[in-house]
Amino acid sequence: xxxxxxxxxxxxxxxxxxxxxxxxxxxxxxxxxxxxxxxxxxxxxxxxxxxxxxxxxxxxxxxxxxxxxxxxxxxxxxxxxxxxxxxxxxxxxxxxxxxxxxxxxxxxxxxxxxxxxxxxxxxxxxxxxxxxxxxxxxxxxxxxxxxxxxxxxxxxxxxxxxx
Length: 163
What we know:
The chain is of the alpha+beta class. 15% of the residues lie in helices and 33% in strands.
């Protein structure tokens, strides 16, 4: 898909977060895992299963006439057996454990660690994936501002090619 022009792939379906990869400067998140799922949690039965999932937020920052896009990813603890069906943000130990899982399965873990910015805010621990800059000449027509004061809040609704 990335070779065909897609700039970001976010997968789901597996019941736990899976590795991330940067392929030709484009991010692949193989699985976000569960958010709210009506199952008691069977992570203890599987040898390599961990009880972590991911939530993602697209951040758009206007820098002069350019739009800088960042995917902020918040890991959550999603073992319903232990959380009573109420996923919660991970703690520091769990965050580090999940990052090790994500990096362990990656072909170039050191390179990936250098490309991922980590931090903590009021929503919890996170890691940022830089998605690049959207140049004005690449905005789809429906995103081009009608005037200087128009905001770009609808950019997340559009399918855009980043440059």
